[in-house]
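ESCALATION

Customer reports they have been waiting on this structure for their group meeting. Please prioritize. Original submission:
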Amino acid sequence: MGAPGESEGARETGAGAAERARAAHEGILRRQSARESAARTYARALPIVPVRARGLTIEGADGRRYLDCLSGAGTLALGHNHPVVLEAVRKVLDSGAPLHVLDLATPVKDAFTTELFRSLPPRFAERARVQFCGPAGTDAVEAAFKLVRAATGRTGMLAFTGAYHGMTAGALEASGGATDVRVARLPYPQDYRCPFGIGGERGAELAARWTESLLDDTKSGVPLPAGMILEPVQGEGGVIPAPDAWTRRMREITEARSIPLIVDEVQTGVGRTGAFWAVEHSGITPDVMVLSKAIGGSLPLAVVVYRDDLDVWEPGTHAGTFRGNQLAMAAGTATLAYVREHGLAERAATVGARMLDRLRSLATEFPCVGDVRGRGLMIGLELVDPEAPPQPTSDAPALDGPRPAAPELAAAVQRECLRRGLIVELGGRRSSVVRLLPPLTISDEQASAVLDRLADAVSAVSATNPGERRPGRDGERGAAGPE
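Update from on-call: job pushed to the front of the queue and completed.
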């Protein structure tokens, strides 16, 4: 029955509006499926049609609301439509300033460059140059490769297993899914699936020694390269933070051999990992930093920042029509300043640590959660097959080893999250890692709501596996929470 005093016509009008909204939602999804490329990705796992968004929350055309822990794959440091970003964009639009200027100097660009240099690690910033690239991070990676090749006169590159640097040809060659490889691949240290079956400091040490051996062995088949590119936290590779000591070793190894070190901060930058730039955790000074995503404040922007003595390019060596996006620079300036002035990197470290603690307690309840890892607000849960035997490691009994990855369980958790109004991403070697990339502005209450919904989704998926649940769980977590 309707509310007291509610007319039959009003109820029909409300029901009719909801039905029309659902029909419009379904029609848009059908047309997308019929018209767009088979290469579309997020749209397959997330059949929603966003029409409004603010902060952590997205509202779909069908009226449903979601907590967005995808954040444009880490692009939205301040969440959707943050007031300071909107104000910065409106100011440019209302000023009559040109929106397209190629690489000409403008007050908007000058303000962005000034704020960017203010945010960089001081030792790096004092000798830095910046190259504005096409609007995607992958173009900035290509530019970085061209830069170090021009500066060194060498051609080869060093990259790491599990890496992801973009979708253009050169960036793909340095990424983990490469098939036609012209890049030497090095082991990236990790604890849960250590390439040497050891993990911890010993595993990282072996990875470093392997790198030294490859470079110093005259018969390794790897000539001195033009550069090394690494991610301080592998995102698409499964949310794997590099040990700080290992990162410092990579800096020592490359510096001693005059190999420029390129750090890919496309997803880790602007406070995401609990420091403004992830290299600050280890204290290294790279030769080149590749930046995109959050630096544009939700709009397309990508740059390469590098040591001044590498600046040997001839004019036009790396160019692009859309490297002067004034709206993105204004939004980026506002975002960089807001993150810096409000201590959001430190906030990400605090909130991220609390979220990791709670998720690790979840892993003790459900054997399908093989590992929980991350840094700051870059968090991942690796789903494994709880019924498969553990894989033995070199220094632990078989019962302590990792179980095989379970991409089907990860996909099921993602679907159950969406049913509960939570958007998450998948990543990792076999798409078996559920990833959380919430905006840095997430509140404590919102973080609890995200974890409640995720825990409830894992519980629902685990219920389909007999004997999966460990004793001690008292009741189901609800999906309620702040939006």
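Sent to customer with the following note: The CA atoms of residues 22 and 62 lie 5 Å apart.
Escalation resolved.
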